[in-house]
Amino acid sequence: MAWKRRAGNGLRNNQTILRPSAVYCGIFHIFAAVNKTCLNNDIARYRTSESPGYVIQNWLRNRNTIRYLGLWERLHNIGFNCLEFEAIESQSGLNSFALTPKTWIERTGAIGIKSKQGRYAATFAHQEIAFEFASWISPEFKLYIVEDYLRLKTDENSRLSLNWNLNRAG
Predict the structure, then answer these.
(1) Domain around 126
(2) 52 φψ region: left (φ > 0), alpha (ψ -120 to 50), beta (else)
């Protein structure tokens, strides 16, 4: 839902900004409540509450998702099976391609995603992977993450340049 800001606050009269929606706030609440791992099923429920497992499987079908997961695993997992990854990557994106979290873990030795089977089945992901999943679920979430990152970098740069200028004067 968009709303207009009043004049005098840095925006022109006809510019609008987005207010965080319930989806963004709900997804962000999931990240705030956990440490390093997130329950992807809870994030997937923002897309559909009936079958969050299918949402995760659809996300895993995407070639960009597979590439992101492969890169993350190469950076964080010494035991990652790169040959198996390449086989999966070559099939990703095809109409006939299907991949479950369990299959991904078993074939590649992945550590970024954990899958629990049985009565209380759930898929957990490292926080960085869960952010990528949440960005796929909600473009609004992705936009707010990018804006927050840019704001933090601007703040950091202004603090560093102030220190640099003070150090030069002394």
Answers:
(1) 22-148
(2) alpha
Query: Residue 109 in contact with residue 81, Cβ under 8 Å?
Result: yes
Span 137-166, pLDDT tens digits: 888 888 888 988 899 888 888 887 766 555
Which secondary-structure segment (H or E) carries 166? Answer: helix 139-169
Q: Is residue 114 part of a domain?
A: yes
Report the C-alpha gap between 31 and 144 in whole angstroms.
14
Quick check: is 154 in a domain? no
Q: Is residue 75 part of a domain?
A: yes
Q: Total domain count for the chain?
A: 1
Do 26 and 46 meet the contact criterion of CB atoms below 8 Å apart? Answer: yes
Q: pTM, whole model, 2 decimals?
A: 0.71
Between CA 18 and CA 27, with CA 21 as vertex, the angle to 5 degrees is 125
